[in-house]
């Protein structure tokens, strides 16, 4: 009988409805989709009425993927890859200024250093001249402008692949001129720093992308011509890296831009792999031809 006395009467008033996610909060507003109560923190404005956060999340999963002309995610809000690269460059630049850390010497690229530490082909893109703030300022501004345009169009994965391969392609371009006679050649021990190879790769990618989207590429062409001339007029500019990045970005951008709609995902994987294979083979061939007689005694 004690149990019967403890039970509430059948006509006893029920308690107020509570939010399933926050049981301590009475919630008199119900989700238009599932009918459950939703507290103010869990309410989301819908086209009609209010929906709870769970229903909004489920609807987002079931919604069809909306893509751009080139296969990027049309819902991408912020160029995360662009901001990440800029942040890494800024942090790396500050580390370059730390006395005794030898951060620059540890990660810069030279043709000879790249032969024994191949990661320098990429890490060089996150270093800049500490004696000229304009160097990092121009590169970061150019990366910001081009990234704002290209990253949403291509999608984060393909844009990241473009940036990485353009940086590596710039270093390979510098390597290919190592040891050549005359003013075009560079020393095997000559070091270089900067994200310019990556930036010029993005410039190169913009040419086919602008053509594919029906926009004018006149400003990019003028910018490339001006920088091309400056590379031969202003000393200490690694125009060889600019050229390598430009060619790499142009090739990859063309593959992304003119891929058939039904093949965009496949080409988004195949094209970067093919470009990576080409730049790796170019570097290996250069080292094999130029350094084998030195590293292997008796070879001619």
TrEMBL record:
<feature type="transmembrane region" description="Helical">
    <location>
        <begin position="217"/>
        <end position="235"/>
    </location>
</feature>
<keyword id="KW-0812">Transmembrane</keyword>
<comment type="similarity">
    <text>Belongs to the peptidase S54 family.</text>
</comment>
<feature type="region of interest" description="Disordered">
    <location>
        <begin position="1"/>
        <end position="21"/>
    </location>
</feature>
<dbReference type="InterPro" id="IPR050925">
    <property type="entry name" value="Rhomboid_protease_S54"/>
</dbReference>
<feature type="domain" description="Peptidase S54 rhomboid">
    <location>
        <begin position="117"/>
        <end position="256"/>
    </location>
</feature>
<feature type="transmembrane region" description="Helical">
    <location>
        <begin position="119"/>
        <end position="138"/>
    </location>
</feature>
<dbReference type="GO" id="GO:0008233">
    <property type="term" value="F:peptidase activity"/>
</dbReference>
<feature type="transmembrane region" description="Helical">
    <location>
        <begin position="192"/>
        <end position="210"/>
    </location>
</feature>
<feature type="transmembrane region" description="Helical">
    <location>
        <begin position="159"/>
        <end position="180"/>
    </location>
</feature>
<feature type="compositionally biased region" description="Pro residues">
    <location>
        <begin position="10"/>
        <end position="20"/>
    </location>
</feature>
<dbReference type="InterPro" id="IPR022764">
    <property type="entry name" value="Peptidase_S54_rhomboid_dom"/>
</dbReference>
<dbReference type="Pfam" id="PF01694">
    <property type="entry name" value="Rhomboid"/>
</dbReference>
<keyword id="KW-0378">Hydrolase</keyword>
<keyword id="KW-1133">Transmembrane helix</keyword>
<dbReference type="InterPro" id="IPR035952">
    <property type="entry name" value="Rhomboid-like_sf"/>
</dbReference>
<keyword id="KW-0645">Protease</keyword>
<feature type="transmembrane region" description="Helical">
    <location>
        <begin position="266"/>
        <end position="285"/>
    </location>
</feature>
<dbReference type="GO" id="GO:0006508">
    <property type="term" value="P:proteolysis"/>
</dbReference>
<keyword id="KW-0472">Membrane</keyword>
<protein>
    <submittedName>
        <fullName>Rhomboid family intramembrane serine protease</fullName>
    </submittedName>
</protein>
<feature type="transmembrane region" description="Helical">
    <location>
        <begin position="80"/>
        <end position="99"/>
    </location>
</feature>
<feature type="transmembrane region" description="Helical">
    <location>
        <begin position="241"/>
        <end position="259"/>
    </location>
</feature>
